[in-house]
């Protein structure tokens, strides 16, 4: 038991999307004789068989599973061999898996006609022993897809996974959803710096089998409010034949945003990234772990991607510099500024193209330039040699259609309330077990 409650408003909302069928019965139906529906499982009518339910024990092989039910060693070997086929993909049976033996009604020897072994929540394997030989087949349970919504907030001492875990039944689905949200907003929000009060909403499809949700399907749209700034992402098919699908913001800009190629608009590279150059000021050979862009004093320096300013300060050879953390992988740094742009300080969120400072020659510099340093996983790299995530840009001709398409979806997101949690105590903790 966890010591929190969900507001019932969420439950009410979900039921809006899941209601179906009509609530009234006709008189004919009321008077009709009650007929017991057939007992169908794994596509078999269990009423036609003697049903034996068993479970794979530790160290069991297929022999342990099938020999007690009259399957000959020859057929067991054949079944085991057929099961390893790539279309079936069962190399060995797993401890704890419940399987079903179907035999003839009244057969006291319980000789197996079929054995049904579930491979996972959707797939199952049917061993057919009706003939002289053995047939092994992988089959799937019928799955259904329904549109769902969810929303939540980041609370103190918590994270996105916790917030999602409150609403998704299945731990795999929490993982899938967290991965999606962090992925689609990776170029917009630093998920290591979420704040209490950050909020999110998602419209997605949920895959179910026999009424049990087991997987997140397509995510139609997502919204994230980070430090009181709103970010939208809409799934849109750019080219259905080529299966080009992207996520775009309210203006049709792709969410997976590549970096600007340079932090100054009009400039030339005066010194590239190299492990070995003759330093013009220090007069010695050393590595140059950045790219120098020469530009007139005072030229605006732009943030090359969205991110959070983690430093805006003066430090020796770097002079005035700004460093921006973009996501868990990338950070950029801009050296030798003459000064910072208004409002640029540690903790401020900047968008791609925002002016963060001005070209100068503070620190160790011979002339006005910006030394642009690119960090990947804490190491400086040559950004011009780095491969970034593949981009699916919006073609101008699609933009009107896109903007029309997202209108009702955005309206739906705008009207969705945030699901709140009631937490007892300062932080989400597991309830103590009573002694
Ligand atoms: Zn430099």
Short description:
The chain has 435 residues and is an alpha+beta fold. The chain has helices at residues 8-18, 27-31, 62-66, 73-83, 160-165, 171-184, 399-415, and strands at residues 4-6, 40-41, 44-45, 50-55, 98-103, 112-118, 123-128, 135-140, 143-153, 199-209, 212-226, 229-239, 244-248, 268-271, 274-278, 285-288, 291-294, 300-302, 307-315, 319-325, 330-340, 349-350, 355-359, 369-376, 379-381, 421-423. The model is unreliable at 1-29 and 428-435 (pLDDT under 50).
Could you please describe the fold and organization of this structure?
This protein is an alpha+beta fold. It is 16% helix and 37% strand. β11 and β12 form a beta hairpin. It is elongated and about 95 Å long. The chain starts with a strand and ends in a 12-residue tail after the last strand. Bound molecules: zinc ion (ZN). Zinc ion binds next to loops.
List keywords for this structure.
435 residues, alpha+beta, Nuclear Transport Factor 2, Chain: A, Glucose Permease (Domain IIA), 3 domains, ten-stranded antiparallel β-sheet, five-stranded antiparallel β-sheet, 7 helices, 16% helix, disordered C terminus, binds zinc ion
Helix-strand layout with pairing:
Blueprint: E1 4-6, H1 8-18, H2 27-31, E2 40-41, E3 44-45, E4 50-55, H3 62-66, H4 73-83, E5 98-103, E6 112-118, E7 123-128, E8 135-140, E9 143-153, H5 160-165, H6 171-184, E10 199-209, E11 212-226, E12 229-239, E13 244-248, E14 268-271, E15 274-278, E16 285-288, E17 291-294, E18 300-302, E19 307-315, E20 319-325, E21 330-340, E22 349-350, E23 355-359, E24 369-376, E25 379-381, H7 399-415, E26 421-423
Antiparallel strand pairs: 1-26, 2-3, 4-5, 5-6, 6-7, 7-8, 9-10, 10-11, 11-12, 12-13, 14-17, 15-16, 17-24, 18-23, 19-20, 19-22, 20-21, 21-23, 21-24, 24-25
The site of zinc ion has 5 residues, from loops.
